Amino acid sequence: MDSFEPRRRRRARRVPRDKFAALKAFFDSSNMFHYEGLLGNGGQGSIYKIKYVELNKPNPLSRRLVAKVADPSRGSDVEGVAREKMILETLRYCQHIVSMIDSPDDPLASAQRLGWAWIFLEEMENGTLNAFLKRARVAGFVSLPNRMLWRIFLCMIRACIDMAWPPSSSDSDEKTIQFLDKPTGLVHNDIHGGNFMFGSLADDPEHAISPILKLLDFGLAQRINSSDFASVATGEQQNIEDIGIMMATILTLQTDWKYTGEDVQVDLSRLGYSSAVLSPASGILGGPEHDEPDPLPYIDRDMRLIIAACMASNPQDRPMMVDLERWVYSEVSNTQPAYYGINRGGAEWESNETICNIVQQCIFDALEDVT
Prior knowledge:
This protein is α+β, with helices and mostly antiparallel strands. The protein folds into two domains: about 20-120, Phosphorylase Kinase, domain 1; about 130-365, Transferase(Phosphotransferase) domain 1 (Transferase(Phosphotransferase), domain 1), CATH 1.10.510. The chain has helices at about 5-15, 20-30, 80-90, 130-140, 145-165, 235-250, 280-285, 300-310, 320-335, 345-350, 350-365; strands at about 35-40, 45-55, 60-70, 115-120, 185, 195-200, 215, 220-225, 265, 275-280. A four-stranded antiparallel beta sheet has the order 1-2-3-4. A two-stranded antiparallel sheet has the order 5-8.
């Protein structure tokens, strides 16, 4: 008996099992969808690169998609991916949220019998916000131009508006929210630099020099009906806090840690809010009452005040979405490089040309993914 043991072990190791064979088989059955490989493993499922060819068109077009697949046999969160798919269905027409893609020729349709859940998403071709920040640091930058930061901030605000009041069609205007219905209460719950990705430039003031930034991964998202819990922040207030923390992190190009700061009293009267608001803003504003130096003198003070307001310890002190949109959109639309002429780098650092060069170098020309 003992003499046969080594042979059995060798035989067991002889033919490695392709763990992606089942998935590949589904795509091999389609002449429109082509499997191109694994992108990564998330908390709920695996992410794959897919090429889609529209054969029903006179001139077939191809595009790359991303498939998020939950397979119960591999311990994936099938319920979570199915829930995310339902949420993305309600956010279908949002410009600043990654788009879900439907196809009548879905090669995974028969995978339902295996208990799988999956989503096809648009490919965001220009990488994550985290990857961009890392590349900027490697390139020697210690901060970004204020005019670029304003644009990144506005994209995040647009994503919050999309979650609160998702448009009903592709023609809907995501910019006007004053007279819309009660917000959805949807809170993302996982806002960080890896869940924002850059798309392309566009012919509009917001994305002409800095590409659109979109929010993705709604696997932990939930709706909060705060009317039942008066002391709990609304979904909108939680999202506002999260983008405030995200922006505070971006100011110094941090990617390895999430911004934290000690509570300081902040005067928001310049914004039309309270003159005494507690916010964990010590790291971006310092503590003038204790003769602490300004930690970020080259970053627009108004921007830092708005970020501090977003992070206010009391949710009721955080800005309303309509005010956030108005403040930041005004800066994006009206603030010219000369406004920052006395800052380090002067107006040239804030110019369209400088911002376009940073985008080209750290987003479009990046040859190696450093996520």
